[in-house]
Write a structure and sequence with these properties.
heterodimer; A: alpha/beta; Rossmann fold; 2 domains; 4-stranded antiparallel beta sheet; 38% helix; B: two-stranded antiparallel sheet
């Protein structure tokens, strides 16, 4: 089987508002797949639908050959989810949170204790096992959420904006954890709005905006789709402008024409692709306010 | 066996919470019913000779136990579920686990049943010290546990149906609090106008109070009230099930 997640034509409506609008996602077994989008693009809602937390208005989701609407319980047994928020009871200990989650997945108590100790040792959570959730920093809460999600040894791990709000050390630590579990065979589906995170981790990426997938590919393929080379320079109105080129020569030629405008020639980043595909925010009205003309 | 097993798996995190906070949770639940027993039993009771053929203290102790089964169970469950849903967001994690919705609903009731029953036993023990008219029997404990389960089911229904804590407070003020005082707990319904008694008869605490009082005072068991309670329990369960089943 090539694809472990196949979602076709997923739609989710809240009344007249369409949160997810015909999303198609195919994730290969063993890959790290990223869903990249701005705030409010539909990333978290897509994860909630894919993980059976929300029922789609239309569309079909198959996880490891199991249709999630036909056999929700079996589909759930194959996935682990780390939500955007910490999603743990703050008034009980880390140990109690982890064991409760494992028991809900029908893991025998003794087996759960052994697996908890293995996972906690692996990611350095052991000294915090008897602390209550509300005594932990964000990074340790996120680690607890990851251990909870991995207790039943899922084939697919969904991570919804896993590093939002974390410091640099914690972010890099979580990236390493993701890589380790991916190497051990888990398929990873992560959402993020951090370009460096997507570039550092993902084998393939879909860009989502306003509930629709607007492009899919490897980071390199996405960069090539707008041009491998970027020339950025100051425009007459003081804003930074970006032009993209498929070969170095045409980029160099353009660079020479804007040589008076602080140009920089560089390789295209995923961030350039993201901004080209999803659009830049217009701040013209802000300038008007600051100038006193609006 | 499957449902019972799953029910206790769902309840485990709540049981850990209860174990950590057993004294605080029990004491806070006992304050209000103890005040009712003291203020109404000895304060008001000193000027009331008897009610429904027994001393006033013997009349209100089953009523206070009935109130406790409702307030302890309902408030514990609805508040805990709302916090897990809105603040900890751990309830969503439970929805992702391979357990049935029935087990999820019943599992979330266990904390309310446990807390309500422990407080109920303490209140009955204190009541037994205050009056010898009470008959303590296994049936009385069974009825108390059943009552805790029904109001825990109401707590689950409120927790999953109501959108936030402000709505829970509203429900407490307009439904739970009026039931506390009106449902034949502190006074006999024969002393109020028939139309008011008919309205009060519809409320679940009226029937809990009637059943617990009948057993505690050795009277004929009001089977109609028991059936009404069963209907309420089923209704609360179905309401919770439908709320869990719908899209968010």
């Amino acid at each position: 089987m090539e694809y472990i997640i196949e979602a076709e034509g997923i739609v989710l409506r809240y009344g007249d508002f369409v949160a997810v609008d015909g999303v198609d996602v195919k994730v290969k077994e063993g890959e790290i797949f990223g869903l990249l989008g701005p705030n409010g693009a539909g990333k978290t809602t897509s994860v909630k639908v894919l993980t059976t937390m929300m029922r789609p208005t239309a569309g079909r989701i198959v996880i490891n050959s199991v249709d999630t609407q036909n056999d929700t319980v079996k589909a759930r047994s194959m996935i682990g989810v780390v939500q955007q928020h910490y999603a743990m009871d703050m008034d009980i200990s880390v140990r109690e949170n982890i064991i409760s989650r494992a028991v809900l997945h029908k893991i025998p108590y003794k087996t759960a204790k052994v697996r908890m100790m293995e996972l906690c040792e692996a990611i350095g959570l052991t000294p915090y096992l008897d602390k209550k959730g509300n005594e932990l920093s964000g990074g340790w809460k996120k680690k607890t959420a990851i251990v909870c999600a991995l207790m039943h040894d899922p084939k697919i791990l969904f991570l919804d904006e896993p590093t939002t709000g974390l410091d640099t050390q914690s972010r890099h630590m979580l990236w390493d954890i993701v890589r380790i579990f991916n190497k051990r065979g888990a398929t990873i589906f992560l959402t993020t709005h951090y370009m460096d995170e997507a570039e550092a981790l993902c084998d393939r990426i879909s860009i989502i905006n306003k509930g629709k997938i607007i492009d899919t590919g490897t980071p390199q393929e996405l960069c090539q789709s707008i041009g491998k080379f970027t020339v950025e320079y100051d425009s007459e109105d003081g804003k930074r402008k970006y032009s993209f080129f498929h070969n170095r020569e045409s980029a160099k030629q353009f660079f020479d024409t804007v040589s008076e405008r602080n140009p920089i020639m560089r390789g295209t980043h995923l961030e350039d692709v993201f901004l080209e595909k999803t659009g830049r925010l217009d701040i013209t009205s802000l300038e008007g306010v600051l100038d006193g003309t609006d | 066996m499957g449902l019972i097993d799953e029910t206790f798996r769902v309840a485990l995190s709540d049981l850990y919470y209860f174990k950590r906070n057993i004294i605080i949770l029990t004491l806070t639940s006992l304050v209000t019913p103890l005040l009712y027993m003291l203020a109404f039993g000895f304060g008001v009771g000193s000027s009331v000779e008897e009610m429904d053929g027994v001393s006033y203290i013997a009349f209100i102790i089953p009523g206070v136990v009935a109130i406790n089964t409702m307030t302890s169970s309902f408030s514990t469950i609805s508040h805990k579920l709302m916090v897990q849903k809105r603040f900890y967001e751990s309830f969503d994690e439970m929805l992702l686990c391979p357990v049935s919705k029935s087990a999820l609903i019943l599992g979330k009731c266990i904390l309310g049943v446990l807390k309500g029953s422990i407080c109920g036993v303490i209140l009955l023990a204190l009541g037994y010290l205050m009056t010898s008219d009470l008959i303590i029997s296994p049936q009385l404990f069974g009825m108390m546990i059943l009552s805790c389960l029904i109001f825990s089911l109401l707590g689950v229904a409120a927790g999953v149906v109501l959108p936030d804590l402000a709505w829970t407070d509203l429900f407490n003020s307009f439904v739970i609090l009026p039931m506390t005082f009106l449902c034949g707990t502190m006074f006999s319904l024969s002393s109020v106008p028939q139309i008011v008694a008919d309205i009060i008869w519809v409320l679940p605490l009226t029937h809990t109070s009637a059943c617990i009082r009948a057993i505690a005072l050795g009277r004929d068991f009001p089977w109609i009230s028991f059936v009404v309670l069963m209907i309420y329990g089923t209704f609360f369960f179905i309401l919770s099930w439908l709320a869990l089943n719908r899209n968010k």
